[in-house]
Design goal:
The protein has 731 residues and is α+β, with helices and mostly antiparallel strands. It contains 17 helices and 33 strands.
Length: 731
């Protein structure tokens, strides 16, 4: 052992003995240096000694940056890689993650379970660590593009997931017939390390990158979405009857004479909710009728097990991956017009202030009178309003919107009074919900229209309208009513809950918005949703609206399924569940099963115990599958938006600045496509980001860019694989 190393070991022992002393109080490195009279120019050496003790597992660093004797050798967590090489370790029970520099990743791959040692925590910086051991690899299969040269006896997988920073070596005998440009599913055989590439074997060829639909299927594989039904499931589905039997209708409330409609998107095929409404001059009688899927999907059957595994239907840019086979979702379980269907009906009596003063949940048989679309209902109600204006003489100017009678109006004349009352009740319910503090985010949404080859033709912004709001408010009302009903029944149940945000995140939000002159009350304790609602109302139609809305959303927790009725923060609701979509959401199907057992008097001790045991796992699983579906849906939309912009490179547009970072600006087009303007593409000046004022500042010109500013941009690049779009300033 060299003298230098011996000296280092002696220093380690001195420091360790001091920290182990009973009189020692956890200190920061500066305090230790002062105590030991370590000069400033030697403090880096002191840090190295302390880091070595941390790596040995003898001491540890607290969240406040103080050194103490180790209570555990290392922390254990999940490594989240960044495309640039560094990453973070998420540790259960810790509020903040641990930053891992590129040189300290120890060749860990994304999602690996690792042991990490905390090295340092500089003032104002997140804790930094070093991975000391890979405990378990988190990824065993990858999706990507196979690349090889015609003469080569090997190839490489370029992973779609950019967090996987290494290409995967594929030996010729493991290529499985894949050719250059194929999208493939690869099974990892080794994970590389020490300068060696990971190795893999082609497990499945998805298709060539230029084949229609291959891009979306790659996302399906990446997220592990089950997209095919087994023969067993399909055979069981085929045995499902095409029509409702007389036997199935026995003992149900016959509501076939009640006028009701379905209102959905034009291309919807799985119609799981119908609505009816009457008004006696004092009370509204609202009926929300939901397809009784449980009549055809028995618990623990092949259909039920598959639906539970999937958790939800997934709506991708070019296809729907259903929770149930089409024979059920588009057939016997779909509330198609003019045919008898089994339903679970929530019948509510509502006063003129929007209060549900009486209700009943019952098994029913229904017959929908008309299948309607959001567009039809919107136009009918607008035309009806036009006619009223014309008849009462209040029209001051010539209305040129309607040049000829609305076709839908003439076709649906018999049900128009009901639709008008639906609009009236919707507005009452909406006002009531707003008064109690419900939060509505008005983010711009868009639908990507594809041609027969699944190439994007157009991006169409989607605006909420009267028809969509009618269905939204009626479904919310039914979900709240059902949740409250079964809460007081004290039965095992599945609730849709949304916890209040962490105070730390609300304080961060308050600090940020203060820079724009906005404030919030009552954040010292638990914030009330009304405060966030007021904030969004104050920022409406301001340049900061979109950014503050997004930051507000990020400060909130994710809604999830639970067995405890803890309320829904975002809706400002004491009780809430998902009851209205059993065709596409498993929690709704499970709730129907519980309701039916209650109504039929079957929820005895044994059944109660059964639900008590299974519901927590169902809640957790369905929360996970929901998040997986949401992420996959977002990815396919981003991919198709990028693909659309590939044919518009060089074109100029007006855009709104939606984000400012040290490396550039994000801007959004009217069609909702967002792109990055990197500082290197801001050619007219040298720009710097001023964090304290949230501005991009030009050093020579003094030009300033702020959030919400309208700018002229030029599209410079679009990458479908990376799902990114790049702009430059065109001014």
């Amino acid at each position: 052992m060299t003298e230098k190393k011996e000296q280092f070991e002696r220093r380690k022992k001195v420091l360790y003995d001091m920290i182990c002393d009973k009189q020692y109080i956890p200190m920061k490195i500066k305090e230790i240096a002062i105590l030991l009279n370590v000069p400033k120019d030697s403090r880096e050496e002191l840090r190295k000694v302390l880091d070595a003790l941390v790596l040995d597992g003898k001491i540890e660093l607290t969240a406040k940056g103080k050194y103490r004797k180790a209570s555990a050798k290392f922390l254990e967590g999940t490594f989240i890689a960044h495309p640039r090489g560094f990453g973070f370790v998420e540790v259960d029970g810790r509020e903040s993650d641990i930053f891992i520099p590129e040189e300290a990743t120890a060749d860990a791959m994304h999602r690996d379970t690792v042991q990490v040692a905390i090295l340092q925590s500089k003032e104002g910086k997140r804790q930094e660590g070093k991975i000391v051991k890979i405990l378990e690899h988190g990824i065993r299969e990858l999706i990507g593009t196979y690349q090889c040269r015609p003469s080569a006896h090997y190839g490489f997988l370029l992973p779609d997931n950019k967090r996987i920073t290494k290409d995967i070596f594929i030996a010729q005998e493991n290529a499985g017939g894949a050719m250059d440009g194929h999208k493939v599913l690869v099974e990892l055989l080794s994970y590389g390390g020490h300068g060696k590439s990971p190795e893999g074997r082609v497990k499945e060829i998805i298709g060539h990158i230029n084949d229609p639909g291959t891009d979306i299927m790659s996302v399906v594989y990446e997220y592990g979405l089950p997209f095919e039904f087994s023969d067993r499931v399909m055979k069981q589905a085929e045995r499902t009857p095409a029509c409702v039997s007389e036997a199935d209708m026995q003992g149900r409330r016959d509501l076939r004479d009640v006028v009701m409609v379905t209102i959905d998107g034009e291309d919807a095929k799985d119609l799981d909710d119908a609505v009816s409404l009457s008004f006696d001059g004092t009370y509204y009688y609202l009926g929300v009728h939901i397809a009784d899927v449980t009549n055809y999907v028995q618990e623990n059957s092949a259909l039920d097990c598959e639906a539970r595994t999937r958790g939800t239907s997934v709506y991708l840019a070019d296809r729907v991956i259903p929770m149930l086979p089409h024979r059920l979702s588009n057939g016997i379980c779909s509330l198609n017009a003019g045919v008898d269907r089994l339903a679970m009906s929530c019948l509510m009596q509502i006063d003129c202030k929007g209060n549900v003063i009486d209700h009943e949940v019952t098994e029913s048989v229904i017959r929908v009178d008309r299948r309607m679309s959001y567009t039809q209902v919107k136009e009918i109600l607008e035309y009806a309003s036009h006619l009223r204006t014309e008849q009462d003489g209040s029209q001051k100017e010539q209305d040129t919107f309607w040049k000829e009678p609305c076709v839908f109006y003439e076709e649906c004349r018999a049900i128009i009074p009901m639709l008008e009352k639906m609009e009236e009740l919707m507005r009452i319910l909406r006002v009531k919900r707003k008064k109690r503090g419900a939060i509505d985010f008005n983010f711009p949404e868009a639908k990507v229209l594809l041609d027969e080859n699944r190439v994007p033709m157009e991006i169409v912004p989607q605006e909420p309208n009267t028809a969509t709001r009618i269905i939204e408010e009626f479904m919310l009302c039914a979900n709240e009513t059902v949740a409250e009903h079964f809460f007081w029944q004290e039965t095992p149940f599945l609730y849709r809950t949304h916890e209040a945000p962490d105070s730390e995140k609300i304080e961060q939000l308050a600090s940020f918005i203060a820079g724009f002159g906005y404030g919030m009350k009552g954040i010292s304790d638990e914030v009330h949703p009304k405060e966030l609602q007021k904030l969004l109302a104050r920022t409406a139609d301001t340049p900061q609206e979109l950014l503050i809305s997004r930051l507000t959303l990020r400060s909130m927790k994710q809604a999830r399924y639970t067995t405890e009725d803890t309320g829904h923060f975002g809706l400002a609701a004491q009780h809430y569940c998902h009851f209205t979509s059993p065709i596409r959401r498993y929690p709704d199907l499970q709730i129907h099963r519980i309701i039916k057992d209650v109504l039929r008097g079957r929820l005895r001790e044994e059944k109660t115990q059964h639900y008590t045991e299974i519901l927590p796992d169902i809640a957790e699983h369905c929360s996970k599958t929901e998040r997986r579906a949401d992420e996959a849906e977002r990815d396919t939309v981003k991919m198709k938006k990028a693909q659309y912009m590939m044919s518009h490179i060089g074109e100029e547009y007006d855009a709104v600045i939606t984000g400012l970072m040290s490396y550039g600006m994000y801007a959004e087009l009217p069609n909702t496509v967002e792109g990055l303007i990197h500082v290197t593409r801001m050619y007219d000046d040298r720009y710097y980001y001023r964090e304290e004022s949230y501005e991009m500042y030009g050093m020579d010109t003094g030009r300033i860019f702020r959030l919400g500013d309208t700018i002229r941009i030029r599209v410079t690049d679009a990458d479908k694989e990376a799902k990114t779009v790049d702009f430059e300033l065109a001014e």
